[in-house]
Write a structure and sequence with these properties.
single chain; 315 residues; alpha/beta; Rossmann fold; Alpha-Beta Plaits; 4-stranded antiparallel sheet; 30% helix; 25% strand; disordered C terminus; binds adenosine-5'-triphosphate; ATP-binding; transport; P-loop_NTPase
Length: 315
């Protein structure tokens, strides 16, 4: 799984799909690569579930194609061994125990019964696996869905809104779990409409709005861009500090009686310059945007109806 260029695992190429007058996918294009968690993020109705359904062949696109390991999912002979998916955690047999549900799935896919107990452990189902799935909370259903997705030990895992219904402990568990799947070399695609859920989890982001990709970027790159290289400086000698930094090519703006906003120089260079020129300072801190801030900036135009007074919505 080391050569990313030849091991692309999900390729979505130019998908277009309508539901009646509603354009759900409008040229959706991205690639999910192994060894990292790719967050698939967008506001409600942006097209996340539809894209995943097209990848699985559950919905047909009018244009474009979706490939898993280079071929359409429907043509795979043992699909669970290529891609494990959790789309709808409520899709289970309420009268079966979780373990029997998994045994039945394993049998239908030629997977050994031994694997069932492994995935029960991996998904943290524990003794609940012997209970009827009909009585499960949404969080336990998510875990059961994840256990099912892992049955075929697939190199690609795709989860639609897996954080839904999880309590804070469950969210922490899910983050660690997704990261561990990626560390094992798997390609992990996980959708969410809340960027905060993916904090400390996603390595890469495909941000979508209105059926198309708005940004396809590493998390670190997105944060650096949103942070804009702004540094806040606290000093008892603002005019002197401004003079020194301006002389070194920075743009300096007074932001308070003893604070300056500096752009155009990295924080460590600012510290060195001030020290060398004997300018006193008590704080130099680079502004770090949160993932949520970066996301809001990206999707500002893509959110349907946000802030539009009733009666003025045009779609
Ligand atoms: N079966 C359907 N019939 C009609 N319209 C649909 C259908 N499925 C999806 N849509 C429409 O397609 C668009 C994309 O929906 P989709 O469910 O893929 O978005 P999403 O990003 O998954 O949203 P959410 O975060 O709410 O799940 C929306 O405008 C939605 O109303």
């Amino acid at each position: 799984m080391s050569d990313e260029s030849t091991k692309a695992t999900i390729e979505v190429i130019g998908l277009r799909k309508r539901f009646g007058p509603q354009l759900a996918l409008d040229g959706m294009t991205f690639t999910v690569r192994p060894g990292r968690v790719t967050g698939f993020v967008g506001p409600n109705g942006a097209g996340k579930s539809t894209t995943m359904r097209v990848i699985l062949g559950l919905d047909a696109a009018e244009e474009g194609k979706a490939l898993v390991d280079g071929v359409p999912y429907r043509t795979l002979r043992r699909p669970l061994r290529h891609l494990g998916a959790l789309l709808d955690a409520s899709a289970l047999q309420p009268s079966r125990t979780a373990r029997n549900h998994l045994l039945w799935l394993a049998h239908s896919q030629g997977v050994s019964g031994r694997r069932v107990d492994e995935v029960i452990d991996q998904a943290g189902l524990g003794t609940a696996a012997r209970r009827k799935a009909g009585g499960f909370s949404l969080g336990m259903r998510q875990r059961l869905g994840i256990a099912a997705a892992l049955l075929g030990d697939p190199p690609v895992v795709m989860l639609d809104e897996p954080f839904n219904g999880l309590d804070p402990d469950g969210i922490v568990w899910m983050r660690g779990f997704l990261s561990s799947l990626a560390r094992q070399g798997r390609a992990v695609l996980v959708s969410s409409h809340l960027m905060s859920e993916l904090e400390d989890t996603a390595d890469h982001l495909v941000v979508i709005g209105r059926g198309r990709v708005v940004a396809d970027t590493s998390v670190s790159g997105l944060l650096a861009e949103a942070s804009g290289g702004r540094v806040t400086l606290r000093t008892s000698a603002p005019p002197r500090a401004a003079q020194v930094l301006h002389g070194a090519g920075a743009t300096v703006l007074a932001t308070g009686p003893d604070t300056l906003g500096v752009t155009g120089l990295p924080d460590e260079e600012i510290v060195a310059l001030l020290a060398r020129n004997g300018v006193p300072f008590s704080q130099v801190s680079a502004h770090r945007a949160t993932l949520e801030e970066a996301y809001m900036a990206l999707t500002r135009d893509a959110v349907e109806y946000r802030g539009i007074p009733a009666g003025e919505a045009t779609r």
